[in-house]
Design a protein that fits this description.
Elements: H1 2-14, E1 24-30, E2 32-33, E3 43-46, E4 52-54, E5 60-66, E6 71-75, E7 82-85, E8 95-96, H2 101-104, E9 106-108, E10 113-115, E11 123-127, E12 150-153, E13 164-167, E14 180-183, E15 186-188, E16 200-206, H3 209-212, E17 223-228, E18 234-249, H4 258-266, H5 273-284, H6 291-295, E19 299-311, E20 315-327, E21 334-347, E22 352-368, H7 372-376, H8 388-394, H9 413-417, H10 431-436, E23 439-456, E24 461-480, E25 491-514, E26 517-540, E27 555-558, E28 564-581, E29 585-596, E30 605-616, E31 630-644, E32 656-662, E33 668-674, E34 685-698, E35 703-715, E36 718-722, E37 731-735, E38 738-754, E39 758-768, E40 770-775, E41 781-785, E42 793-797, E43 804-807, E44 810-813, H11 816-819, E45 831-834, E46 849-853, E47 858-868, E48 871-881, E49 884-887, H12 889-894, E50 913-915, E51 923-925, E52 928-939, E53 949-957, E54 961-963, E55 987-988, E56 995-1005
Parallel strand pairs: 2-8, 14-17, 49-55
Antiparallel strand pairs: 1-5, 3-4, 3-6, 6-7, 9-10, 11-16, 12-13, 14-15, 16-17, 18-19, 18-56, 19-20, 20-21, 21-22, 22-23, 23-24, 24-25, 25-26, 26-27, 26-28, 28-29, 29-30, 30-31, 31-34, 32-33, 34-35, 35-38, 36-37, 38-39, 38-40, 39-47, 41-42, 42-43, 43-46, 44-45, 45-50, 47-48, 48-52, 49-51, 52-53, ...
Length: about 1000
């Protein structure tokens, strides 16, 4: 009865701040470390109360403990916290042990795990502490600046779009350059969009070849391992997280309004009467088309997530669900996601356990088909919908779409009969009509099931077999309305694609510690099959824009490029041995043999070995004198091989395509023709990488520094090379060429302040990358041009990075007299005078040079986490420096076109001018510094048996985004066009604007 009464009093007092206990008793003692050294400043706290004290200079303490309190907590920086039962004792003398939590941290390594202190490869780890509170819809968008060696770019601001991820530079040219993504052991043929941030427990990135070689054929571009949360023994716990966000564009176009260019033009002394009439007439329309206002909006987003977890003695479970609705900052751009995850592990007996991991998701995206420069270049005098004034001029109803052709006398007799001038800029439709008149809806259904059975053969040996399937159905519906294109004819494209991915893995794991020796080994066999069937259809002849189904069209056809059925298989054997002697001499050896159906019969199998070593100097006797300052010192070195098979299926085989044959009697006979040349020797693209590293911990690891140097060489590049047309073909997939990437990665973590009620931790990352082509087959260089209408050039040459902008240097612009005064006034000429770099008086290819490159010299991140009592604050700055973009947007927004894109009537007999697109005019510095995310929260000090935790928070992303003064676009990361090849990387054409967001949220734990 007395205990019950005391408990009731305790519960009552937990909700009443400042109340006092009726009775108490004294506990005293001395706190020491493992060497019997007295520890001053140790925090001593009575659990379940706010009563506490600290030890004096001699390690002594005295504390009054209220009756009914049963536990004292002792905590000190660099030592493990101890919770000691009082048990009616009046004297307690604890011995605190050194806290090596950073070194004892478990790191997932692929088919296994290791203590961080035993790692010999380059693996970056990020535990999920508050990722779910960052107001972005995807896991990868929350990782900016947090992992050294990992470059992430928002190449398009489209809601739900996949960011570009590159690990340690561009290692390939025509093959896939993205990292392999593994979720709970399953290598998925997809991106991270299906993973809910709330479900993530940790993220590991395997960066060097020694770490990634265990994934062999797919590890050349790095590996991202996602480990999701699991249930734990105990009663069910429920967590609910919700946040609501408002997003606006972080950057915008700087566009002239009608009055600004009209005032400029009307003051020109040589302005023609015709142009003057046009300017005054357009100005009198009284409209100011603001492209940024028309195409952007304040997007509202909401996200709800709930998870339940718990378990019994033999079974644990984790169940979660998510519903998200994310509006983009561009009108008509939306992303919705609904997902469910179930994870169950059951121990059937002492040696046998089974488990299943299931995830299903539905994603819907309303994708913007129109590029932003098309919206921005609409005539600034023209309203999107006809006003009473323009309706009277043109004869079109008020509120109907306004088209530039309506203001062309020859195209619109009603307008022409009134004697109005031709004031149109282009034959295009208006920008807003183009934006909303081309709806593209995408829907993706994903189902993932992965089950395992594990049997503990002996105390040291376990066999695990897993089987899984990953299914994706992707549907795209694109409709071009009558007002969305200049031809005025509705047209539709449909795509239905199914992907089936099957995986079976059978792995033996062995762990043993014998005296000073620690051994862990694994070996196994895996097989993975990926099947895709795709059907693309097109339709036209719709009666109107209202009914957009194929059945409403009068004409349908099969889109050949989108219609196919394909399959590839990967069979592998793998093995790895990790060894540690006396916790200081470390060795890891791994190998993998892969056979891929994507390669020719003569070169189908690839072998990918790796070895890494480490030396923990701090365990050596001669380091004992430095241990008061240096708490960790480890040297590592590794070398290994990884591969890349990320090309299409059947490219090594001569494939057939449909075609027609004309017989001698002039009859056309349908049949098949050979579509490509076979290459039975096509094989693996392999990357060989050396990695050297040092890890230093100071002052009980309050300062922890990791430095890695890497140098990787990719040879036998998978290239789609041009071949002589006399062969009957234009290209052939071959293994040719060599590329090197090298650089330094630095990661520094400092625990600046560590106290019970105040802590401050900082993590800084820095990554440098140098990319260099070492061999390019039979050529020293290769020049690419993206398009003939607005040509710009890229150069790939030996001794330089893969992708470089190439062209002329601008000497000066054309003067008004040279350019002439064209409608509309205030815009710039298509041509400029170029610099004669070799001084021969002629402007030709000999005057072209490298103008910049697409990849940065270095990227960095800086994260700070501050906690004060119940308040917490975290923020991440991230930056990229040294990259350039070819921003074609200015060419559309600023340059008057003459239709044929020639020299616009310029008299240039000496040939000293060139098109601006072939110069450095549009090559802009893409460096930036951004406040990627900020999170400020408060946790209420609740003492309730029902609510374990309540936290409210404010979060933001891209709240500050600083760019180079010369950058004029919407997104310096926006490399969104001509990216199918690394040759032309860096081309920017109307990317969706970056978004900055403001979010309010709540997290409840029951």
């Amino acid at each position: 009865m007395r205990k019950l009464f005391t408990t009731c009093v305790f519960l009552l007092m937990g909700f009443m701040a400042g109340s006092a206990f009726a009775q108490s008793f004294t506990v005293k003692g001395i706190v020491k470390d493992e060497t019997s050294f007295a520890l001053p400043g140790v925090s001593v706290l009575v659990n379940g109360s706010t009563i506490g004290t600290v030890t004096d200079f001699n390690g002594a303490y005295t504390i009054e403990v209220p009756e009914g309190m049963e536990t004292l907590t002792f905590s000190y920086v660099g030592f493990k916290t101890q919770h000691l039962q009082i048990q009616n004792r009046s004297e307690i003398n604890p011995i605190l042990k050194t806290d090596n939590v950073m070194l004892d941290q478990i790191v997932v390594t692929g088919y296994g795990e290791q203590k961080k202190s035993h790692l010999t490869g380059a693996i970056a780890k990020l535990e999920n502490t508050n990722l779910e509170q960052i107001p972005v819809p995807r896991v990868d968008q929350a990782l900016y600046g947090k992992l050294a060696g990992v470059q992430i770019q928002t190449t398009d601001g489209d809601a739900g779009a996949t960011p570009y991820i590159q690990i340690r530079g561009q290692a390939t040219i025509n093959a896939g350059s993205g990292p392999l993504i593994v979720v709970d052991g399953f290598p998925i043929p997809d991106d991270l969009s299906a993973v809910d941030m709330n479900d993530v427990a940790s993220i590991e990135v395997l960066k060097d070849a020694a770490s990634a070689a265990i994934y062999g054929s797919r590890g050349a571009n790095g590996v991202i391992l996602i480990t999701t949360k699991t249930g734990k023994k105990g009663k069910m716990k429920v967590s609910f997280t919700s946040n609501m966000s408002v997003k606006t564009p972080a950057l915008g176009y700087d566009l002239d309004n009608p009055n600004s260019w009209a005032d400029y033009a009307l003051n020109k002394p040589n302005l023609s009467e015709t142009d003057k009439e046009k300017i005054l007439f357009a100005q009198q329309l009284g409209h100011n088309y603001d492209a940024m206002e028309e195409m952007t909006r304040a997007g509202f987003s909401q996200n709800y997530q709930i998870n339940l977890s718990g378990g019994s003695e033999n079974t644990s479970y984790y169940i979660s669900g998510q519903a998200m609705d994310d509006e983009g900052v561009v009108e008509g751009n939306n992303f919705r996601k609904y997902s469910l995850r179930v994870k169950v592990d059951t121990k059937l007996n002492e040696r046998f356990k089974v488990g299943v991991n299931m995830n299903g998701s539905l994603q819907q995206r309303d994708v913007i088909e129109t590029r932003m420069h098309d919206v921005g270049r609409s005539a600034s005098w023209m309203p999107s919908f006809h006003t009473p004034e323009t309706s009277a001029m043109t004869g079109y109803p008020v509120g109907s779409w306004t088209m530039e052709e309506h203001f062309r006398p020859s195209a619109n007799p009603i307008y022409g009969d009134q004697g109005y001038p031709d004031i149109r800029n282009t034959s295009n439709v208006n920008g807003y009509a183009k934006l909303v008149g081309r709806p593209k809806d995408e829907q993706t259904v994903r189902m993932y099931v992965n089950a395992y059975a594990a049997y503990q053969i002996t105390d040291d040996l376990e066999f695990r077999s897993t089987g899984g399937v990953y299914y994706t159905n992707f549907q795209r519906n694109y409709f071009q309305t009558s007002y969305g294109h200049r031809n005025g004819a509705p047209e539709a494209l449909y795509l239905n694609q199914n992907t089936f991915n099957f995986l079976n893995e059978n792995i033996l794991n062995y762990k043993k510690k014998i005296g000073d020796h620690e051994i862990s080994a694994m070996g196994g066999f895996t097989i993975q099959t990926n099947k895709v069937n795709s059907l693309g259809t097109g339709a036209n002849g719709f009666l109107n824009d209202k009914i957009q189904l194929p059945s409403a069209a009068t004409n349908t056809w099969v889109v050949q490029d989108d219609t196919y059925e394909t399959q590839n298989n990967l069979v592998s054997t793998l093995a790895r041995v990790n060894y540690a002697f006396r916790n200081k001499y470390l060795l890891s050896v791994s190998s993998r043999w892969d056979g891929s159906s994507r390669f020719g019969a003569n070169n189908r199998w690839g072998y990918f070995p790796a070895v890494s070593v480490g030396w923990r100097l701090m365990e050596e006797p001669f380091m004992a004198q430095f241990r008061e300052v240096v708490s960790e010192l480890k040297l590592t070195s590794s070398y290994g091989a990884t591969g890349n098979n990320a090309i299409g299926d059947y490219l090594h085989i001569g494939n057939m395509a449909s075609g027609n044959y004309v017989t001698g009697s002039d009859n056309v006979v349908p049949g098949y023709v050979l579509n490509n040349k076979s290459n039975p020797d096509l094989g693996w693209e392999r990357t060989f990488e050396y990695n050297g590293g040092v890890n230093i911990g100071l002052f009980e690891n309050r300062v922890y520094l990791g430095v890695q140097y890497y140098s990787s060489t990719t040879d036998q590049l998978l290239l789609n090379m041009d071949i002589p047309s006399m062969s009957g073909f234009e290209t052939l997939w071959v293994n040719h060429g060599k590329v090197r990437n090298s650089g330094v990665e630095i990661e520094l973590t400092t625990r600046n302040i560590v106290k019970d009620d105040f802590s401050w931790e900082t993590t800084a990352t820095l990554t440098t990358t140098k990319n260099e082509v070492l061999n390019f087959g039979q050529h020293d260089s290769f020049q690419s041009t993206t398009e003939s209408k607005r040509p710009n050039h890229f150069l790939t040459q030996v001794g330089s990075p893969i992708s470089q902008f190439y062209g002329y240097r601008v000497k000066r612009e054309l003067t008004d007299e040279e350019f002439g005064l064209y409608w509309p006034i205030g815009l710039q000429a298509n041509n400029v005078y170029a610099q004669d770099l070799n001084g021969d008086g002629v402007i030709d290819e000999n005057d072209m040079e490298v103008l910049g490159k697409a990849n940065p010299d270095f990227v960095w991140g800086l994260t700070n986490t501050v906690r004060y009592k119940q308040f917490d604050l975290s923020f991440t700055f991230q930056g990229s420096h040294g990259a350039s973009v070819f921003n074609i947007d200015d060419h559309y927004l600023q340059t008057h076109w003459a239709g044929t894109n020639d020299k616009i009537g310029l008299d240039d007999p000496d040939g000293l001018t060139v098109r601006k697109t072939e110069t450095d005019w549009h090559v802009q510095d893409a460096s930036y510094v951004a406040l990627r995310n900020l999170n400020f929260g408060y946790t209420f000090p609740l003492q309730s048996e029902h609510i374990r935790n309540l936290r409210v928070f404010f979060a933001g992303s891209n709240l500050l985004y600083l760019t180079s003064s010369e950058y004029t676009g919407l997104n310096p990361e926006g490399i969104n066009a001509n990216t199918e090849s690394a040759y032309t990387r860096g081309y920017q054409r109307g990317p969706m604007p970056l978004a900055k967001s403001f979010s309010l949220g709540v997290k409840l734990d029951f």
